[in-house]
Amino acid sequence: MIGYFEGLDSERGIVWRCSDSRSLGDFIRLGKRDKVPDHSWLSKTRSRLPHEVHEKVFAFVLKLVAEHGLVKGERLGVDGSTMEANAALRTIVRRDNGESYREMLTRMAKESGVETPTIDDLIRLDRKRKGKKLSNEDWTSKTDPEAKIAKMKDGSTHLAYKPEHAVDLDTGVIVAAPIHEADKGDTTTLDPTLKEAEKNLSAVGLAPTPEDPRDLVADKGYHSRDVLKDLDDGPWKTRISESRPSTGYSRWHGDDEARAAVYGNRNRLKSGVGREAMRKRGEIVERSFAHVLERGGMRRTWLRGRENVHKRYLVHVAGYNLGILMRALFGAGTPREAASAKNALLLVIQTNVAMAIVIVAEIDGEMALLAIVAAPEAD
Question: What is the pTM of this model?
Answer without folding.
Answer: 0.84
